[in-house]
What we know:
One of its GO terms (molecular function) is oxidoreductase activity. This protein is of the alpha/beta class and 263 residues long.
Amino acid sequence: xxxxxxxxxxxxxxxxxxxxxxxxxxxxxxxxxxxxxxxxxxxxxxxxxxxxxxxxxxxxxxxxxxxxxxxxxxxxxxxxxxxxxxxxxxxxxxxxxxxxxxxxxxxxxxxxxxxxxxxxxxxxxxxxxxxxxxxxxxxxxxxxxxxxxxxxxxxxxxxxxxxxxxxxxxxxxxxxxxxxxxxxxxxxxxxxxxxxxxxxxxxxxxxxxxxxxxxxxxxxxxxxxxxxxxxxxxxxxxxxxxxxxxxxxxxxxxxxxxxxxxx
Length: 263
């Protein structure tokens, strides 16, 4: 594998930081290549603004048009272009972050906002049908991704009946709405629960789980999201009524339910 490890935690001494180090060591021991984007260490700017696109600040900023034009003409900000080069090189993306308020830290959300611009991450159209190529098809098709997240909550409370909601539902905007949207196949996430109250033995358990997930990552079956353009959705992009008539929301957009998030 050629792995881009995308890391978003402000403290290298944290459990997350230790697991990142263990994960990179594991990749190397199995002969994989990797590059790292440590967003806090890089002091990554998460804010979309006109200078990203060499855009005249006196003109109205239409982000989609400006970013697509800047990408096509090679005018993207150098920090954005550098991250796109890393992702182009990689066939696998590891996204590691603490679960804060049921989502990604702002610095990581800003990485996707700035890097996944039209023309680079999406924007293809099928010439035969005129339909956009997305949700299982797109510019990043062929790449794989896995989310690693630490949470203060216990594992059971991030399950189907837990008060915090099921982890795959919480990650749906990232796993389905960002990664699968652009064609990236997403394997089940790795949850490290109870991270802020971990016992001394917890690191060994978490590290062992991480090593096993990385060892099997090339052959792990992805989450079975529905493809947009293979007949499950009508021309208005609504799921046909005869498919998954009972579940609504995120559950309806899988062809098979995701496995439990705790290994």
